[in-house]
């Protein structure tokens, strides 16, 4: 194993593994690792998962619950196994954020569901898009959100309608299978796979193989926790690979040609940890087996006793990348992977917003809805608009965006104008382009604050207030604003220029008000950043929802006044004194 296996980021992660020895340390409790401790369940979640595989609930939904209604649903199915088919109960309307932590799940939840449509690689046809749009308008009160994991989420779904929704989705080769739960979640893929002029390797065949072979496989349907995959062959590294459990990033090996660099063990939530390179080069012909090997390690060695420690990042933290790679090779692959190079710094932004030429001479257009919020009506109109302009393909992105493929040059500007009329901008402002937001209190039972409207309001205010900095050329690069309704970081707050974690804040009159803890200077590898890094938190740096535009305007103007040369916001935020960040 070469010394290049562990990068600077890995060394920082490795520091967390070093603990001083302590005399008379009591015997450690078992972690619930199947290959070490046996498969006896050590908590209630592991018990019900073993009693009946989550995939089996589909038959009960179709044959019992959809016919007898919400009240007929078994509690364990409702709060557990339904997730294996992309269904969560949504938040009851009118419950404020201060009650999120004090009410029981059944007190918070409504009799309606969020339904997550799984879109591996983000690949859609206009026919599929129209079906999703029609389902939204007919069954989901016209709701639809594009997520930062390339899925589309619908709300207000009744259990009575789920079988019909499945029939319609599956008729166009879409599904909700394992869109949630302790399973392999949606596979992130490059939105420009197969069409970009500068692509290193096309991951489309691999994503298809993984989806066909392993999604819905009962042998992989009981993992310790959720398991996230990201695969790209594009040099922009456009799938946020550093925060996924398993990731492949396109590289060119000096002797072996184009393939992938292997990363494992990333994840955010309340204990953020960046993935680490294993230093291994993965060729296309063994990539599926490597995915299966890493996934099987998680199944067999992942920690199951405590849900809070059950993600792959905790196992990697204890093992380190060298041991992880050795066990992968020795126990699961049966061969050694060659050492490989790291991918260079991305030369272009990974959100693909704007107008770009494809390798076949046609164009792709990356557009930004406002923080992923669309509707069934918009999706159906979008399908019609694309077909009228001669294209039938599009992709969702890991940045709550859409990329339209295969546009003839003479159709570009007319299509851009019609997309803009739908609220999908190919030339968005810096703030609209770079702001993302989670579902928030509108639908999520875990949320404490509202996010989508808060984000849209902030974007509009910042566009107006900071127009002078944009117009005079002072501000030329997007400043990423990520807004999350709770501590779980679905909107990736630790990897944003300005990350906002929802919480209730005290007020002088004693009544708490919605607000955020602020993280500053985080980011993933991109055209302005060599390596990923987590944001800086400053004790006491919190802002109310109402004061959010004021705070962002103030800190951005401070950055504009203080920065040195071409210093990015993240670089400035990490060196600035605490006082100027308040």
Automatic annotation (TrEMBL):
One of its GO terms (molecular function) is heme binding. Residues 1-46 are annotated as: Disordered. It comes from the Bacteria. Residues 106-172, 356-421 form the Nitrite/Sulfite reductase ferredoxin-like domain. Its EC number is 1.8.7.1. Residues 181-334, 433-575 form the Nitrite/sulphite reductase 4Fe-4S domain. Residues 9-30 have a biased composition (Low complexity). It catalyses: hydrogen sulfide + 6 oxidized [2Fe-2S]-[ferredoxin] + 3 H2O = sulfite + 6 reduced [2Fe-2S]-[ferredoxin] + 7 H(+). InterPro entries: NIR_SIR_4Fe-4S, NiRdtase/SiRdtase_haem-b_fer, Nit/Sulf_reduc_fer-like_dom_sf, NO2/SO3_Rdtase_4Fe4S_dom, NO2/SO3_Rdtase_4Fe4S_sf, NO2/SO3_Rdtase_FeS/sirohaem_BS. Its cofactor is [4Fe-4S] cluster. Keywords: 4Fe-4S, Heme, Iron, Iron-sulfur, Metal-binding, Oxidoreductase, Thioether bond. It is an enzyme of class 1 (oxidoreductase). PANTHER family: FERREDOXIN--NITRITE REDUCTASE, CHLOROPLASTIC. Catalyzes the reduction of sulfite to sulfide, a step in the biosynthesis of sulfur-containing amino acids and cofactors. Belongs to the nitrite and sulfite reductase 4Fe-4S domain family. This is assimilatory sulfite reductase (ferredoxin). It comes from Arthrobacter pigmenti.
């Amino acid at each position: 194993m070469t010394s290049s296996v562990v990068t600077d980021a890995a060394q920082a992660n490795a520091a967390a593994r070093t603990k001083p020895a302590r005399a008379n340390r009591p015997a450690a409790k078992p972690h619930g690792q199947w290959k070490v401790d046996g498969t006896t369940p050590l908590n209630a979640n592991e018990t019900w998962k073993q009693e009946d595989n989550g995939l089996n609930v589909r038959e009960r939904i179709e044959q019992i619950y959809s016919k007898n209604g919400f009240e007929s649903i078994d509690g364990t199915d409702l709060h557990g196994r339904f997730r294996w088919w992309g269904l969560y109960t949504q938040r009851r309307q009118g419950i404020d954020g201060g009650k999120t932590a004090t009410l029981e799940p059944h007190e918070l939840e409504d009799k309606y569901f969020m339904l997550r449509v799984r879109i591996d690689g983000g690949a859609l046809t206009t026919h599929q898009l129209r079906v999703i749009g029609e389902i939204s308008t007919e069954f989901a009160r016209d709701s639809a959100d594009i997520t930062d994991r390339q899925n589309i989420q619908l709300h207000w779904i009744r259990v009575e309608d789920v079988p019909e929704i499945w029939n319609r989705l599956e008729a166009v080769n879409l599904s909700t299978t394992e869109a949630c739960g302790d399973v392999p979640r949606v596979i992130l893929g490059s939105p420009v796979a197969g069409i970009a002029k500068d692509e290193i390797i096309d991951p489309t065949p691999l994503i298809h193989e993984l989806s066909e072979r392993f999604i819905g496989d009962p042998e992989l349907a009981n993992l310790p926790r959720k398991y996230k995959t990201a695969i790209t062959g594009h040099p922009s590294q456009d799938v946020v690979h550093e925060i996924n459990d398993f990731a492949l990033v396109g590289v060119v090996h000096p002797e072996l040609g184009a393939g992938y660099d292997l990363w494992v063990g990333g994840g955010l939530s309340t204990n953020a940890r960046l993935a680490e390179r294993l230093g291994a080069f993965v060729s296309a012909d063994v990539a599926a087996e490597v995915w299966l090997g890493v996934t099987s390690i998680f199944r067999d060695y992942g920690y199951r006793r405590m849900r809070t420690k059950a993600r792959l990042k905790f196992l990697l933290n204890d093992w380190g990348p060298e041991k992880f790679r050795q066990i992968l090779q020795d126990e699961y692959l049966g061969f050694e992977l060659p050492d490989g190079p790291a991918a260079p710094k991305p030369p272009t932004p990974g959100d693909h917003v704007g107008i770009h030429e494809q390798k076949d001479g046609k164009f792709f257009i990356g557009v930004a809805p406002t923080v992923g919020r669309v509707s069934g009506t918009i999706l159906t109109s979008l399908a019609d608009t694309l077909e009228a302009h001669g294209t039938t393909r599009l992709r969702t992105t890991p940045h709550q965006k859409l990329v339209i493929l295969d546009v003839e040059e003479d159709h570009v500007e007319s299509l851009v104008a019609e997309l803009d009329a739908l609220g999908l901008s190919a030339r968005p402002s810096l703030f609209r382009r770079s702001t993302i937001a989670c579902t928030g209190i509108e639908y999520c039972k875990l949320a404490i604050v509202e996010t989508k409207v808060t984000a849209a309001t902030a974007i509009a205010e910042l566009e107006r207030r900071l127009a002078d900095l944009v117009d005079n050329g002072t501000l030329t690069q997007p400043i990423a604003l990520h807004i999350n309704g709770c501590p779980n970081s679905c909107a990736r707050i630790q990897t944003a220029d300005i990350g906002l974690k929802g919480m209730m804040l005290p007020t002088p009159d004693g009544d708490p008000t919605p607000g955020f803890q602020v993280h500053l200077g985080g980011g993933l590898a991109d055209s302005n950043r060599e390596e990923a890094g987590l944001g800086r938190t400053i004790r006491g740096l919190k802002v109310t929802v109402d004061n959010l535009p004021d705070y962002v305007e103030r800190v951005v103007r401070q950055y504009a006044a203080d920065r040195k040369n071409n210093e990015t916001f993240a670089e400035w935020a990490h060196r600035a004194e605490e006082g100027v960040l308040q």
